[in-house]
Write a structure and sequence with these properties.
5 strands, single chain, 64% helix, mainly alpha, 5 domains
């Protein structure tokens, strides 16, 4: 996406203005591509700084930047260097623009809001200096505190009007301006707000106490302590602070809050009635994804008012996001909940589970020095979660607390093994399992530093072993959700969590085989060499499924030349996958082939080889339905090619042994599989090829009937 490409991409976003789904796909793809090329972030900053306030391209430019910053934040959280590299590149570009005097106060505010909206610490160069303020006439010369307070009172009044009295919207509006303010002005604004008597400022103070900026927490906490000392701390605020101090990191700011609480208790301000909670109609929760992120949705009602509370928890990060969505009617609320359920696979859980999950997430975040998202304050009040406190719990304690843990420990090894082996089918019922893989740079570096397919597999197993606690906790969290939902898979997840805790060999835990295979697949397709010269049409094509070009004669054979496998071996492997009585998903078998061939592939040829393999898989299905076509293809193979075909077939049967269960195979099936294994040494005659084709058709037909 060079400078010229940026122009055409802006035009494409403008064209898709009314198609939110298509715009999101394009933004996601562009953001991913930009992370592979951090220097492009600098071009984006330069273009924004060069745009006039009224320029029509400014909005899509800011949208592109915000999307890229969000992708960079997530990448950084998942320990991918490209996220940090992009953030550093755009920070350097901002500093360069500031040094060249190309950052107007308007541009500083615009860029600051992009960083703030994505929960990122903004570059210091975005701060507007006192000289800038005076030069641009943003405020007249302020001679004393009274004038400063009068100016800020006007600012508060204006922002409150814009937010229509909603504290969450007011907090968001102010937070987006903070990175552009000088640091002392930020703390002064927070302190002044915390001193004001209006109820909306009292609630806003609670939000400041959970800010990730220590200086802002300190300013709010200091103001609270002063008000408590002077006896002017409102009862409602004092009552809220008693709860909030448990959500704050144990630092100096919490010490000041504790001082305010103690003074309030002596004055009898911390008691009193709490607001009546809203009615909770339903709670939905997803299983955690591979990065440890988990969503919770709560349907709420009070009188005719309805809301949906949204929470995002992330392992190692605590309560990442929390907000509410107002609904105009019961039908709108129901439709929103149903859409979320359909998109995420969320399951219904009781409100009591939510309270425990939030307590653990609070403890998880505070262990990393991270307070929860401020929106949790509103959600806790609406749901009546007054007893919400941070709870630090080890993985071992979490697993032991699972409802079925004690019962499963009394089962025989065979019975527990059956439950563990059932994890092979989780991905059939829980789509989120497809996101269970290692995507961090340390994991990929292990793979990149290894030669040969066997070395890659062994190195990755050693890496995943170091992550046993992470995956045990992830599986346990999923088990807890399913147990709360009364889902039949709860016992299988619990047994698997116990197996991980107790040290069972990872290769003997089917879901960990999925993690292993999907990690290799993600690594193979994590191609940093994105085409920077693509046209807008090509960018759109990249995010839409396209039919690959037909295979040229000998194309796949040339790609796998000098590797451990051949094109004929791949055909045999794919036919075994096609005929397996128990379906084998592509995400399981494709990495097996690519892992064997990757040593001979370049980044440019990996995607093409995957396309060719998938086309050959489809050809196997066609041959299975047409015995004459298979017999003809086999007869044309040379003796060594037939032996390679037999080798690929037998390898797949052995590797995916569980997909060929004894109860689903006949005596004829087993006899033919033995004959194919013999074919590794002898090949097949024309007559045997015909018999083989007839068996393949019969086996395929039986699968279709089943």
């Amino acid at each position: 996406m060079a400078e010229g490409q940026l122009e055409t991409m802006l035009a494409e976003l403008a064209r898709l203005r009314e198609d939110d789904s298509a715009r999101r796909e394009v933004l996601d793809h562009v953001s991913s591509a930009v992370l592979h090329r951090p220097a492009l972030g600098g071009q984006l900053i330069a273009r924004i700084c060069a745009a006039e306030e009224s320029a029509p391209e400014l909005e899509p430019l800011a949208e592109l930047l915000s999307s890229a910053l969000d992708a960079a934040r997530i990448a950084s959280e998942n320990r991918k260097k490209r996220g940090s590299a992009f953030l550093q590149a755009v920070t350097d570009a901002v500093e360069l623009a500031a040094g060249q005097d190309r950052l107007s106060p308007f541009h500083r505010m615009l860029l600051a809001s992009a960083w703030a909206r994505n929960g990122l610490a903004a570059p210091g160069a975005l701060e507007i200096s006192a000289a800038d303020i005076e030069r641009t006439g943003l405020s007249p010369g302020i001679r004393n505190r009274a004038e400063a307070e009068a100016m800020l009172e006007d600012l508060f009044r204006s922002l409150i009007d814009q937010a229509e009295g909603d504290v969450f919207a007011l907090h968001a509006a102010m937070t987006e301006t903070f990175p552009a303010m000088p640091a002392d002005m930020r703390t002064y604004v927070v302190m002044l707000s915390a001193e004001r008597p209006e109820p909306i400022h009292a609630r806003l103070t609670c939000f400041w106490l959970l800010d990730r900026d220590t200086a802002i927490r300190m300013a709010a906490a200091g103001a609270l302590a002063d008000r408590a000392a002077s006896g002017t701390l409102p009862r409602e605020l004092a009552r809220s602070v008693v709860v909030l101090r448990n959500w704050m990191p144990p630092d100096e700011a919490r010490g000041l809050v504790d001082k305010a609480v103690n003074l309030s208790m002596r004055s009898g301000l911390t008691g009193g009635d709490t607001p009546a909670p809203w009615t909770i109609h339903s709670v939905l929760a997803t299983l955690p994804d591979g990065g440890g992120a988990q969503s919770i949705m709560i349907a709420l009602q009070q009188g005719s008012a309805r809301k949906v509370a949204m929470l995002l928890l992330k392992q190692g990060h605590g309560v990442k996001d929390a907000y509410t969505i107002p609904c105009r009617s019961a039908s709108e609320q129901k439709a929103l909940i149903q859409r979320i359920k359909d998109e995420t696979g969320a399951v219904p859980v009781p409100a009591t589970w939510t309270l425990r999950a939030l307590s653990m997430a609070l403890g998880d975040g505070l262990a990393a020095g991270l307070p929860p998202a401020p929106g949790l304050i509103e959600i806790a009040e609406l749901c009546g979660f007054d007893p919400l406190r941070a709870e630090t719990i080890t993985t071992e304690a979490l697993i032991e607390s699972l409802p079925a843990a004690a019962r499963l420990r009394t089962l025989s090894a065979q019975a527990r093994g059956k439950l563990i082996n059932a994890s092979e089918d989780w991905w059939n019922r829980h789509d989120i399992i497809q996101s269970w893989f290692e995507e961090s740079d340390p994991a990929h570096e292990v793979l990149e530093g290894t030669r040969g397919p066997r070395g890659v597999e062994a190195a990755l197993w050693r890496w995943i072993e170091t992550r046993r606690d992470y995956w045990a906790r992830l599986v346990a969290r999923a088990a807890e959700v399913l147990a709360a939902a009364g889902h039949p898979d709860a016992d299988s997840f619990t047994a698997t969590a116990l197996a991980l805790l107790e040290g069972r060999a990872l290769k003997k835990i089917p879901v960990m085989l999925d993690v292993h295979e999907q990690t290799i697949e993600a690594w193979v397709f994590d191609d940093p060499d994105t085409d920077q010269g693509a046209t807008p049409e090509e960018w759109i094509e990249m995010v839409e499924p396209q039919m690959p070009k037909p295979e040229r004669k000998g194309e796949l054979a040339r790609m796998v030349k000098d590797t451990a496998i051949t094109a004929d071996w791949i055909d045999g492997f794919l036919m075994a996958v096609t005929l397996a009585p128990k379906v084998i998903a592509p995400n399981k078998w494709l990495p097996e082939i690519l892992g064997s061939a990757v040593a001979g592939l370049t980044p440019d040829s990996i995607q093409r080889s995957a396309d060719l393999i998938l086309m050959r898989a489809n050809a196997c299905v066609e041959q299975a339905e047409n015995p004459a076509a298979f017999a003809s293809a086999m007869t044309k193979r040379k003796s060594m090619a037939k032996r390679d075909w037999a080798g690929g077939f037998s390898y797949a049967c052995g590797h995916f042994r569980s997909s060929w269960p004894a109860k689903s195979t006949t005596h004829d099936d087993r006899a033919m599989m033995h004959r194919i294994a013999d074919g590794i040494s002898t090949g097949f005659t024309a007559a045997e090829s015909k018999t083989l084709s007839q068996w393949i058709t019969a086996r395929h037909a039986q699968n279709c009937r089943a």
